Amino acid sequence: MRKLHRAKPTPKPAPTREMSAEAVFAESVIARRNTRKWSQAELAERLTSQLGRPINQSTVARLEAGKRRIALDDALAIASALDVPLVSMLDGTYLDPWVRVKVVPKKPALHPRQVRKWFHADDSLPWQDAKAFAFALREEKWRELVEGFEEVKARVAAGEAQALLDQEAGDEGQEKGKTDG
Hints:
The protein has 181 residues and is mainly α. The chain has helices spanning 21-35, 40-50, 57-65, 72-81, 86-90, 112-119, 130-135, 139-157, 161-180, and strands at 17-20, 99-102.
């Protein structure tokens, strides 16, 4: 007698977590501080004595709990104290992969990769006027883009299109590896 096999149910994808940039920053502070094995008091001490940004332990606790707004100067100092780029503290790099950043209230939350591209002026936000965004780029960014385009054009003309695609796939894999760790 033949045994019937039931199809295994497809696992449900993990739900995304939409978070404001401040909430992403606060959770990133906790994550990076814990990675460094620092207490809130140790982070506050580093901020105050080594960097000259007077923040005490209770302020760190309120920032992490979302009970105190994060001033830009504080965000810069905290990222510096934790030895990490500010952009990584704001885009969800150090959080679980299901985090989506709510840049503005009336627009959809974004994947950390989209936020990072916007921070680095590599891409506009989906709702922004892409032409206006591109026009506002600094001159050196334009040069960088044009040089990159010229290099790609030359390599494609030389028959290296597949090598370019392979390189891009490898670069994305390396970027994923950086954000997973």
